[in-house]
Amino acid sequence: MAELTDGRIYNFNPGPATLPVEVLREVQSEMLNFNGSGMSILEISHRAKQYDEVHNAAKADILTLMNLGDDYDVLFIQGGASLQFAMVAMNFATAANKGNYILSGNFAERAYDEAKILGVGEIAASSKEGGYRHIPTQDEIKLTSDAAYLHICMNNTIYGTEYHYVPQTGEVPLIADMSSDMLSRPLDFGKFSLIYAGVQKNLGPAGVVMVVAKKSFIENSPATLPTMLRYNTFLKKNSLYNTPPAFCIYTVGKVAKWIKDNGGLAAMQERNKKKASVVYDAIDNSDGFYKGHADKDSRSLMNVTFRLPSEELEKKFVAEALEHKLGGVKGHRSVGGMRASIYNAMPFEGCERLAAFMNDFRKKN
Amino acid sequence: MAELTDGRIYNFNPGPATLPVEVLREVQSEMLNFNGSGMSILEISHRAKQYDEVHNAAKADILTLMNLGDDYDVLFIQGGASLQFAMVAMNFATAANKGNYILSGNFAERAYDEAKILGVGEIAASSKEGGYRHIPTQDEIKLTSDAAYLHICMNNTIYGTEYHYVPQTGEVPLIADMSSDMLSRPLDFGKFSLIYAGVQKNLGPAGVVMVVAKKSFIENSPATLPTMLRYNTFLKKNSLYNTPPAFCIYTVGKVAKWIKDNGGLAAMQERNKKKASVVYDAIDNSDGFYKGHADKDSRSLMNVTFRLPSEELEKKFVAEALEHKLGGVKGHRSVGGMRASIYNAMPFEGCERLAAFMNDFRKKN
């Protein structure tokens, strides 16, 4: 899976992000006629048998990868994680039972902000001070009494930090935004009441959020909410209450199958650790030329963030990287510097080439 | 554009529905490397210049086709028309200024239902009695005093009826769901304050709603609403507040360009009239073998609905049609019988072949 073909480059974008080239080739080959239907997957009715198989196979593969049983279900919802920020608060929190939030980065904050708009959010912990360099520890978490849930953002794309533990919350349901590390490693997913992930980072094209939830947690949604904002609408109707974003789900299904075919989450984790370590090594062995943003114990396996000695050198780095077919390495404006996003689909060879370029660039500058 | 290639069939599905084969071929050819970027359009950052051009060109082409100036804007929102039903009510209606609704079919009802959940909806006219066979006339419309808006569903996919006039509402803003006939004919779009269309019927793959609205109508959204449910979030951020459904927008852009290249809305209307008339003629000249559902003066140019003498014959019709490479002709369960959806991308030859098959089937049965 490593060789660059078709004029392609190694794509370190944070999302939308690189996808397995094998998946893209399949999508391409089926574009005019899906599975003998005489129609493109873009043209098939969401009530047709051909689509039904795609939809349900994707769901089944996701639950298998996560090692979850049928007390969980997979929902496909539109609107991005940003709409989930609101739906979580609308479905589960009230002024009496507030949602509790750990602030660990930009998207964690935005989730809290949506609860605040509705007057139902509280901060349970924060690492904002110091610039979100670490993930709050278990000891830092202070839940309010009668908390409706604890919400965390598992991986912080912009800052390059990631939880390496699952918070203990006792009886309080745990909800996680896993947009940027979903299906990148095995976890005890059964500890979570609801997980959501905008798929455009690690799992597919922008346009669908994968929600994996305990059925009992989502079966009763407030009847005062609009139909499309109730989780139980999607649960009851197998995410087919209205036309789903079929192409995105179809592609996510192919990516899930690709993960299975490549050894599942344990193999992904092993590969991702190996990939991340060559890039972090290039930082750590640079005599301070590259400075990582995240504290070492909070480092993300998905997004490696680092600065160079000057903004001028950072600009030069981006331009020269692209000449070496290394694209999308510019960091987010709020942190500055570089960010290499190395999701599941980034091959080891891409990270190796990036590390070699980093070493070379350092010597020349 | 008429010949069937690649094992494709004529696809009369109501949505997701047939797309121009030229567009599908372009999508296919660019799947691994978009515009020299070295990445698929599925993998490109929504903040990248390459995506920006796609996004803004699609918007510009849509406004040009609709003959609208820069007092209007195009927004791309996820969640389908079903979420628009709720957003319209949440953004514009209150208990004091209720949204007014014309019930002309299933989706018109659903839009009203969402307003009802919020306690802000009133019925201004209805053709439910008699099974939605006609579009309510101007005389039938009774607006409440202080109506926040009048909402109509321009084309009723399930029943095969379509507005052939634009309701006059005086000072009351007019809002229309045009999911199933958007960009199929010229209209005085400037009479509408807000138009929305799930693109999966006439304009692209499922996963995005195109909203075309008067800027002044949507620039102030209630600050009590979640960010993603305010129209002005999309207006202020050029629909890039969060990651947009990039692939859907990219494909919609290609379809808009295809419409322009094929003569614009006037040419589409002419072609669509010609297409519809061969199918309606097959009904009208069948000595009552085929019975149209819609009253003649309310007939849709997009969805032709009809029954056969028995359900047994209807089943046989569906099966034999498919053998003639005519797919997706089964009607919706609430009307029964047949429905031939003949959106912009259905070539004349598809309608001709359907009409020939209908004549032949009638003679044999």
Overview of this protein structure:
- Two copies of one chain form a homodimer.
- With about 375 residues, chain A is of the alpha/beta class.
- Chain A is built from ten helices and 14 strands.
- Chain A has helices at about 20-30, 50-65, 80-90, 105-115, 215-220, 230-235, 245-260, 265-285, 310-325, 350-365; strands at about 10, 70-75, 100-105, 120-125, 150-155, 155, 160, 175, 195-200, 210-215, 290, 305, 325, 340.
- In chain A, strand 3 (about 100-105), helix 4 and strand 4 form a beta-alpha-beta unit.
- In chain A, helix 2 (about 50-65) crosses helix 7, helix 3 (about 80-90) packs across helix 4 (about 105-115) and helix 8 runs parallel beside helix 10 (about 350-365).
- The longest helix of chain A has 21 residues, at about 265-285.
- The mean pLDDT of chain A is about 95.
Main traits of this protein?
homodimer; 365 residues; alpha/beta; seven-stranded mixed β-sheet; three-stranded antiparallel β-sheet; 10 helices; globular
Alpha-beta classification of chain A: alpha/beta
- Say what oligomer this is: homodimer
Q: Biggest interface and which pair forms it?
A: A-B, 72 and 72 residues
Query: Unreliable segments of chain A (pLDDT under 50, ≥5 consecutive)?
Result: none
Mean pLDDT of chain A: 97
Strand order of the largest sheet of chain A: 2-10-9-8-5-3-4
Strand content of chain A: 15-25%
Order of helices and strands of chain A: EHHEHEHEEEEEEEHHHHEEHEEH
Largest sheet of chain A: 7 strands, mixed
Helix content of chain A: 25-40%
